[in-house]
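Hi! If you just cloned this repository, the fastest way to understand the data is to look at a raw example. We've pasted two of them here, unedited. The first protein comes first, obviously.
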Amino acid sequence: MDIWSIDRLTLFLFFVIPGFVSLKAYSLNFPGRIVKSSEQLIEAVTYSCINYALLSPLVYLGFRNKFWLDRPIFSILFLLVILFGGPLLLVVGLAAFRRARWVQRWLPHPTEYAWDFVFGQKTPWWIIASLDDGTKIGGLYGLKSFAASGVEKGGLYLEQAWVLNSDGGFDRERESTGGYLISADAIKTLEFFNCNL
């Protein structure tokens, strides 16, 4: 059996590409665990099947009327919708569904880690980080700050470094600094304070 024959390759691409598009779009919405390639292939085929099931009326009409056979532009648009548009819309719908509060009463939240949940909201915070060695540092997590996501958390960048007073509050911004870069491994706890930017 020649797996690289045009028929088998076309079948493979049509049942893998839409699924991989969905998987990658989903991982951008909900970063989390790293999945093995063998598991991804099974998930990709599953997502592709769901995609084709949802787009079956469009596929049926397209093949029944054969409007795209003599029109290359329609053929390209038809394939783009099937291979990319449908999978992306599937993920947008699934993400909105999984984030709905009434759904979360029965299903777990799709974001796997609290770290990703908090920083994924893109909310500015004043943060006090307690480190493993007992040190406390404070700073601003704002629009120019960054928190690594997923399992391999690289850490946290606070765009402004602040001096903490004796009561543990924010006293003043440290001068001539570019902020704090804190390793995730060194953080024991993070305390968040409302920030109106």
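Ok, and the second one:
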Amino acid sequence: MSLDQVSWAPPLRLPGADATAGEVKNPCDDGDCRPIEGETTPFAQGTGDPHAVAPNDVRQGQMNNCFLVAAMSAVAEQDPGAIEEMIRDNGDGTYTVTLHQYDKGGLFGIGSGWEEVQITVTAEFPESAAQASGDVADDAQEIWPQLIEKAYAQLTGGYGGFEAGGSPADALSALTGESADSRPPGDLGFEDLQASFEDGDAITFLAPETFEGEAAQLAQEHNVVGWHTYSVSDVFVQDGVQMVELRNPWGSGDVTLPYSEAQQIFLSISDVPRD
């Protein structure tokens, strides 16, 4: 279970967000990172995947960062090319990952916005990191989710920072450089949700820590995990019922349910444009 926090305030500059290309600040403060055995590659197209980057490449490890891995899955769902553009193989065992940090600008916020920050990481990860996708190219296993996870940890002060959870909206913005919107599901009609998804927006749903009343019964019926973030993989109408399909970043436990019931269960929806 992941401890996620909802952020309704404007995004702030991420703590520790002074990393630049070539400046390696190892987020493994306790020295528990280990290199992956064998050859690695940022991207490998799995069997049946339409692209080298796919939402099912992302599988949460043992860290409380579903807010981040679900955001990665949401972006991979809508804009796999953006994920590929984020990572550069430097050819020396290091990779440069481009994330974004929020600059509040000068007086009255003039000049504020999301700015690129390039973070250099190595292919060494703790056992609790995101799991390998299992996709292989030329005997090299794919590691893009682990690289982005490590870069985000480095940007925000280390893997230990995931213990407190985080905001899916902030993660979406850090990945894309666009300000994400967050709102209660009751404030977003199905037609608007469907239009956003079909327009290419990366979207996540966050469940509350505890469920009350009818929401508790519905959450149990659909096996929705509390205090957990899901990415949207489809929005559709089936037999006249408005439906939403949500991907669990664990790699199992996906949820498909009527949107009217999702509106009762979930705490917030975060989305960011990818057009």
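That's it. A detail worth noticing about the second one: Residues 1-24 have pLDDT under 50 and may be disordered.
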